[in-house]
């Protein structure tokens, strides 16, 4: 099993969700996060005081998929979140040792 | 009609009579007025005007609403989330504490007219006696002009509350709550009450006899608060990290809501200062709206040109600047004067809050000086210009020229600046020696909500 940590633009959420759902992905976790990479921050001005805000709002979508779905899922996120501009985000892929469904105690891929 | 008694901030407000509609004191009513002034509430129960009283009850509620929740939200939104409660607490606690101070001795120091002689300068030109301490003699039948003195006491109390609350903008996010309370109790007693007395104490009062025009509190409220704010900001020092690290407002939504409440409440502040439901109140309301709108638009445009975008914080700050500037002028100027005054305050306060502050390097956190100090001075000085009939105003007093009126305004402003500046400095030094002005660095980092109040404004489950 793989854990995909996708950092994407906030407005990409719906497209990413649809792309993953079409592959049969049935669950995901979304958090509002801030960070920076190559995309520069933005400027804010309050009563003449100018601030360069380095941390840009992004969404972090975490989703666990079976090994044989992982490549397709990565492609789906890539396609959904790509605008071609700096700041589209990143996908981190991690191996997952075990998954447990708390209600039933199921483990492994059937618990995903 | 009872109109002759409905004059100005107090029934004895010479400034208003000089600058306002001269019919009050022409035609031989001045002697009758003088008699009323010397024996307030004694034998004039039949002079009560229910229309005036109804409006003043309403105005009083409006002005209290300016502080809680108006100013509290305006300021609360401008600080970081970890300090939002500390600001709301300052406004709320001041509302409570200043009420007690006002009832016990503040009102008396401001409005006891014992010992005052028109045209003569003596101690009682500067401060009232203690004859009305604990509201002695203020019963159901006591009158001030055409309204119950109870209403007058409460109306004036709401001004005494908002003035120290305005100062809180200067030391937000770093002052000890206990030091703030002690400072404000002393300041309210030795700075606010005397300046209030000098401006509105009636014949024999210092500003009143000079002919300083201050209809609703340019010197008393705004310059007073603005100068105290500047002194406090300098003495208490900058917030940690200022100006290197960003300290942006945590919720401009709260700030906009608060500013809108201030705008609405200000109709009570200015039109209420007529102490009557009459034409002067009507004009005060109109010019208040005009100056505020003009200042808001002016600030927006200036910022748009200078920083490339019109900002929400800019337009609401401009509105407050306009409200401040029209305050002393609201009984004296006409609609066109209000436009000029609003535009001037928008430009000058923009300069004060964005450029002067950065140049001089003090940390007036929420621009109490930049808006109230600068706006108050602009308003007080320009009142001397736009009161003139030729400038669309209600007309200069007999014997006054525009030049002499401007000079008189300057004397009032300068006296307030020096008196308030020196006294504020001394009080702060005393409070600093007694309990210290500032929280520890650690408490400042944690935020005053947790460190001073054991609470959070926005509680999270985790």
3D structure, described in words:
The complex is a heterodimer of chains A (112) and B (462). Chain A is of the alpha+beta class and 112 residues long. Chain A has one domain (2-111): 2-Layer Sandwich (Alpha-Beta Plaits), CATH 3.30.70. Chain A contains two helices and six strands, in the order βαββββαβ. Chain A has helices at residues 13-21, 67-81, and strands at residues 2-8, 29-35, 42-46, 49-53, 56-65, 89-95. In chain A, strands 2-5-1-6 form a four-stranded antiparallel sheet, covered by helices on one side. Chain A has a two-stranded antiparallel sheet with strand order 3-4. In chain A, β3 (42-46) and β4 (49-53) form a beta hairpin. Chain A starts with a strand and ends in a 17-residue tail after the last strand. The mean pLDDT of chain A is 94. Chain B has 16 helices and two strands. Chain B has a single domain, classed as Ammonium transporter fold. Chain B has helices at residues 14-19, 29-38, 50-78, 84-111, 149-167, 177-200, 206-210, 218-236, 252-271, 279-307, 312-326, 335-360, 368-386, 402-435, 441-446, 448-453; strands at 143-144, 147-148. With 462 residues, chain B is mostly helical. In chain B, strands 1-2 form a two-stranded antiparallel sheet. Chain B starts with 13 loop residues before the first helix and ends in a 9-residue tail after the last helix. The longest helix of chain B has 34 residues, at 402-435.
Overall CATH class of chain B: Mainly Alpha
The CATH superfamily label of chain B reads Ammonium transporter AmtB like domains
- Tell me the greatest interface: A-B, 9 and 19 residues
Amino-to-carboxy terminus distance of chain A = 9 Å
Strand content of chain A: 35-45%
Radius of gyration of chain A from CA coordinates: 17 Å
CATH architecture of chain A: 2-Layer Sandwich
Classify the secondary structure makeup of chain B into a structural class: mainly alpha
Number of helices of chain B: 16
- Name the poorly predicted regions of chain A: none
**Whole-number count of domains of chain B:** 1
Shape of chain A: elongated
Query: Mean of residue pLDDT of chain B?
Result: 91
Kindly estimate the percentage of residues of chain B that lie in beta strands according to DSSP.
under 5%
| Rg on CA atoms of chain B, Å | 21 Å
Q: Which oligomerization state do the chains in this entry correspond to?
A: heterodimer
* CATH arch. level architecture of chain B: Orthogonal Bundle
């Amino acid at each position: 099993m793989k854990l995909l940590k996708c950092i994407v633009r906030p407005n990409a959420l719906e497209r990413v969700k649809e792309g993953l759902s079409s592959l049969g992905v049935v669950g995901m976790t979304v958090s509002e996060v801030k960070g920076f990479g190559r995309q520069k921050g933005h400027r804010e001005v309050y009563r003449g005081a100018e601030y360069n805000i380095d941390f840009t709002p992004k969404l972090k979508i975490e989703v666990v998929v079976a090994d044989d779905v992982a490549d397709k899922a990565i492609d789906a996120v890539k396609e959904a979140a790509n605008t071609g501009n700096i700041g589209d985000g990143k996908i981190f892929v991690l191996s997952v040792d075990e998954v447990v469904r708390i209600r039933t105690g199921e483990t492994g891929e059937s618990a995903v | 009609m009872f109109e002759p008694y409905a004059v100005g901030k107090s029934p004895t407000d010479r400034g208003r009579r000089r600058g306002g509609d001269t019919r009050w004191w022409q035609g031989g009513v001045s002697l009758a007025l003088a008699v009323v002034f010397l024996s307030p509430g004694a034998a004039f129960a039949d002079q009560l005007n229910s229309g005036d009283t109804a409006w003043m009850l309403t105005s009083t509620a409006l002005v209290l609403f300016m502080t809680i929740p108006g100013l509290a939200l305006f300021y609360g939104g401008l600080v970081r989330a970890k300090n939002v409660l500390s600001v709301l607490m300052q406004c709320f606690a001041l509302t409570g504490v200043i009420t007690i101070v006002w009832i016990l001795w503040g009102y008396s120091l401001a409005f006891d007219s014992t010992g005052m002689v028109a045209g003569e300068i003596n101690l009682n030109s500067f401060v009232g006696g203690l004859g009305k301490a604990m509201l002695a003699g203020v019963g159901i039948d006591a009158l001030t002009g055409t309204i119950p003195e109870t209403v007058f006491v409460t109306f004036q109390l709401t001004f005494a509350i908002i003035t120290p609350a305005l100062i809180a903008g200067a030391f937000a996010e770093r002052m000890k709550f206990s030091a703030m309370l002690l400072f404000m109790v002393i300041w309210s007693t030795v700075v606010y009450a005397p300046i209030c007395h000098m401006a509105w104490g009636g014949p024999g009062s210092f500003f009143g006899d000079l002919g300083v025009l201050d209809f609703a509190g340019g010197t008393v409220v705004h310059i007073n608060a603005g100068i105290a704010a500047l002194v406090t900001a300098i003495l208490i020092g900058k917030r940690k990290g200022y100006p290197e690290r960003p300290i942006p407002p945590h919720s401009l939504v709260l700030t906009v809501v608060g500013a809108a409440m201030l705008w609405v409440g200000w109709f009570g502040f200015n039109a209420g200062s007529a102490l009557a439901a009459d034409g002067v109140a009507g004009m005060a309301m109109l010019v208040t709206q005009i100056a505020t709108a003009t200042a808001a638009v002016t600030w927006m445009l200036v910022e748009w040109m200078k920083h490339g975008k019109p900002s929400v914080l800019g337009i609401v700050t401009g509105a407050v600047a306009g409200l401040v500037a029209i305050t002393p002028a609201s009984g004296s100027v006409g609609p066109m004067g209000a436009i000029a005054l609003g535009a001037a305050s928008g430009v000058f306060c923009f300069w004060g809050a964005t450029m002067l502050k950065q140049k001089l390097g003090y940390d007036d956190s929420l621009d109490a000086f930049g808006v109230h100090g600068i706006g108050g001075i602009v308003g007080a000085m320009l009142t001397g210009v736009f009161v003139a009939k030729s400038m669309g105003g209600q007309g200069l007093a007999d014997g006054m020229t525009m030049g002499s009126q401007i000079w008189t305004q300057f004397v009032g402003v300068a006296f307030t600046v020096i008196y308030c500046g020196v006294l504020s400095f001394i009080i702060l030094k005393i409070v600093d020696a007694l309990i210290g002005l500032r929280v520890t660095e650690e408490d400042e980092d944690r935020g005053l909500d947790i460190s001073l109040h054991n609470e959070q404004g926005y509680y999270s489950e985790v």
